[in-house]
Sequence to fold (892 residues):
Amino acid sequence: MDVLTPSTLDEALRLKAEVPAARPIQGGTDVMVELNFDRARPPALLNLNEVRELRGWSRENGTLRLGSGLTYTEAMAGPLAEAFPALAEASRTVGSPQIRNRGTIGGNLGTASPAGDALPPLLVRGAEVELASVRGARTLLLTEFLVGPKRNALEPDELVTAVRVPAGPGSETFMKVGPRNAMVIAVVSLALRVDGDELLASYGSAGPVTGLVRAPLSERAGFPEQVAAAASPIDDVRGTSAYRRHALRVLTTRALDRCLA
Amino acid sequence: MSAPARQLELGRIGEIVRRPDGIPKTTGEFAYASDLQAAGMLWGHTVRSPYAHARVLSVDIGEALRMPGVHAVLTHDDVPGEKLYGLEFPDQPVLAVDRVRYFGEAVALVAAEHPEQARRAAEKIVVEYEPLEQVRIHLAGVGDAFGGREDLSMQIHGALLALHASRPVKMVYNREESFIGHVHRHPARIWAEHRATREGKLVAVRMRILLDGGAYASSSTAVTSNAASFACGPYDVPNALIESTCVYTNNPPCGAMRGFGAVQTCFAAEAQMDKLAAELGIDPVELRLRNALAPGHVLPTGQRIEGSLPVADVIRRAAELEPPPAEELPRDPLRLPGGAGNTTRGEGIRRGVGFAVGFKNLCYSEGFDDYCAARVKLLEDGSAEVHCAAAEVGQGVAGVILQVARTELGIDDVRLAPHTTATVDSAGSASASRMTMMASGAVRDACRAALEERELRGGEVDIERIYRHPRTSPLDPQTGQITGERAHVAFAACAMRVVAEVDLELGLTRVVWIGAAQDVGKALNPQAVEGQIEGGTAQGLGLALMEEIQTRDGLITNASFTDYLIPTALDMPPVESVLIEDPEPDAAYGAKGVGEPPTVVSTAAILSALRDATGLELNRVPVRPDDVVGL
Fold:
């Protein structure tokens, strides 16, 4: 298996166009598990760790632009945590400190798992995903980008370069249920945001894709039920459908209390 | 604990001794077996059954043999000697012959230059199976180092490959394969009935214990018997009828695991004692004290307790431990149920306090008597060399051996030779809370014999001694009663007080604090004993709250540390330990094994706290969030 290590975005896009089956790798917290378990044997890895353009985050014209190489540790602290508190809360729930040092937002987008912890906070902010290839760049709403369980709208020659969210005010939180008190994959998770007079909730691990539910603030009372009803959870090894729906009601109720306190 | 005057590395019996493996293990520099390398080494790989139960019609290894780098492909035809093995009955094939009986049963072996070549070749082995209907047990009114080192997994397989290829062969089970290829704790279902006088004196206990042994026996019969021996808990029970049954299934094989049958029954018996206390209106600790087992009492097996067993003292000392006051809100979410998940800021939280006591046998029992050898060389330069094959599996026995030798010989310059049976007789297995007891006896005896020998003849001395524990005999298979003086060598008790918080709406928990009092005979290295108590408690906490091998039609559905969760530092509370030193008369220095009792008790004690917090019966472990929220 070849490891391609571009040092610029242009080079990365060129390599991706030449070897579309090359698997992008950043922190490797998903990709290396698949390789080690012999679940995937891509012909090449596209190592994006040297590509500076993908790193860090910036404020641009009222938006926060998060590079796809932004790590969870970077999202957990400092001015970014203040500007995007639900993402900071979600990042604190990801794996162990070692995993948070390596794992990136881009990985959550690329893997597109309904259990991706960064996805609910991004969805309640109306996030847009920046995609690039040698053919040019395009932007998709995150809701359009996530097309199914572990499936996204990336073309074979494209890479996720960044995700953008409005930097505007609002109150938000993120909660994740797991059967132990750290290092768990979500049994169910919820991000909730009160944006003016709109309520936005996004649930993880409770449907084939991370779902987004909206309602006017005036419908606050029925919102927990609305969120639970919108979800389509299944029974699996991590939890039951009935518990996931129940927990979404409880989490939405608590999140509303937090955000509207 | 008073600080020792001498260097931390050179402690004698009863002093804190720093473990030489502590820092390398923490920094990741310690060489585990999977780090072994040898010149010309091949890599072994196991081909496993994808079925829980199937007939093996044919195994075609032709293409696998032609794959690059392959030096050996073996099936049952290549097993030269006995084709079956087993700890108690030889019922398990080294490699499946005409039938597989559990998901992941070993069918063939490959040795190749590179692990990837071995895996690729394994994929080319064509095994034709005819799936068979599994035996399903429908319950109709009828009724698991940490032990794992007692059993065989890859040992015979690796030896076969090496024998065939005439090369060193390395086999490493990855995490998933470890779940499949190693034995587990027996799942159990238990029915119990307790009768007592209004004054809270136990009159009778009836218990039916049904254990799932999986596809092969391993140590199931001993676990089944042990579950019965300790079913009543450390109480004086005048009348007991205990029926303990183990069944073969097509589920993953079960065997010895820390606690060896006593974990399951302690969970049941202690739940019963709490219920009984509530029914009688007697304080649960008081009820336990009124029934506490003591020397002179007779166990349900007819064995009279003769050595040390200070149950009442253990209960009293644990009950006296003061839990910390409830923490104020708001708190860091890491200090609330749900932890890093940020699920509550105090909503739905209820605090509960629980208590449990349990006990267990030490060393091999029921006629499976064994021994431990030690050899001591006293050299001209005044130093000494100790040989003992006691397996250091993380429990710290290597340190204990040196402590004993320094204590007995009165010198600091003692070396422990590499653990091997090449230079000294066997030490037996590191299991059954026996290794420290047996090794300290053997090393003590060898040191004393060496000093006597030098006294008599002078010069360099080289002497080996065998240490045996008091003899045991089997229980009568019909009556369950002793057939000699004793079925068990000695006993140890442990009691715990637990504070837990539960989020009643989400069913999430946080164990806040555990106070433990343990009957240790004599703490040879107090810090290591506390480490065993904390580790054993963590294992029991795992069983109480999260650890479960999930299966569907015999297939393991959570064979990874992503889905089989074990406690993290955020799940494990501080443990306050009291060591109760009531010497065991027949043991060297009076020391008792310490590894298992905390595991026996902590699951039961945590459940007691969760019941107090939730008001629910919670008769199943691990407790799932669904159980707490009533789904």
Remarks:
- Residues 135-144 of chain B have pLDDT under 50 and may be disordered.
